[in-house]
Amino acid sequence: CEKEPSSYMWIYILLGNMLRGIGETPITPLGISYLDDFAKEENVPVYVACLHTIAMMGPMFGFLLGSLCAKLYVDVGFVDSGSISITPQDSRWVGAWWLGFLIAGAASFLSAIPFCFLPKSLKKLGEAKKDKTSRYSPVIMPRIFQCQLVCPFLSDFYASLKKVLGNRMYFTFLCCSLLQFSGFIGFLTYKPKYMEQQYGQSTSKSNLLIGITSLPPVGLGMFLGGLIMKKYKMGIIGATKFSFTMSFLAYAISILHFFVGCDSYTVAGITVSYE
């Protein structure tokens, strides 16, 4: 058979996601360090909670946007909508998945413009005459780019990484975070497909339900956690106990998922024999 023509659009998607990741990665680590250096100590938990809450609002609006785009046919603008004989409920329907990339890309570009007007450094509150530079402060970034030799930077990075991973509390917290995000991402990834297959919902409605039910409680929990830490002025030990208690309750409630579900479809050759 003659080889079918293949599309190379996945290369553009790959490069686009790579650029997006490069641009988004510094916001969280440097943003938290920036808040920790230049905000009042008692206000830092609330500011960090706001940062994470806003970060959760993005996926929520992303699911809502995906729900809207999934209602539009993949070739919207290129074909007559009246000539399409299938509906979004049809398994052959393909939504305009590419439209969300254009809208989100334009929004990301516009939201990045204000970052160009931020100052290179700030004086810490109450210490206007005292220069305080943090290891992760944005002040160190020009020094990295001005350095012509890569080896000293890598050596310093290795020493810092070894010191950080040698902290038992941080390493334990890192392992817990990996478990939490692994479970959360798996849940968020396969839940829409599960709803489509088990309950006969369209892709558009599944994304809509996920966006308005799963993510807002997570963002609300992050914000409330920051308020609680500020109100009770928790230190490192108090915050650790608080985190352990909330994580334990979350895992205990998650066990209930084992008792909720639907019977599998009868599929010849998979769940039952062909006979």
Automatic annotation (TrEMBL):
InterPro entries named among the record's database cross-references: MFS_trans_sf, OATP
Where is this protein found?
Cell membrane; Membrane
* Biological process per Gene Ontology, one example term: monoatomic ion transport
A matching Pfam family: OATP
MF terms per GO, please?
bile acid transmembrane transporter activity; sodium-independent organic anion transmembrane transporter activity
| Any one of the GO CC terms | basolateral plasma membrane
UniProt keywords, alphabetically: Disulfide bond, Ion transport, Membrane, Transmembrane, Transmembrane helix, Transport
Q: Using the UniProt record, give the first listed, main subcellular location.
A: membrane
Which range is the signal sequence, renumbered to this chain? none
Give the bilayer topology. Multi-pass membrane protein
- What stretches pass through the bilayer? 46-74, 94-118, 170-188, 208-228, 248-274
The Swiss-Prot or TrEMBL record describes its family as follows: Belongs to the organo anion transporter (TC 2.A.60) family.
Q: What is this protein called?
A: Solute carrier organic anion transporter family member
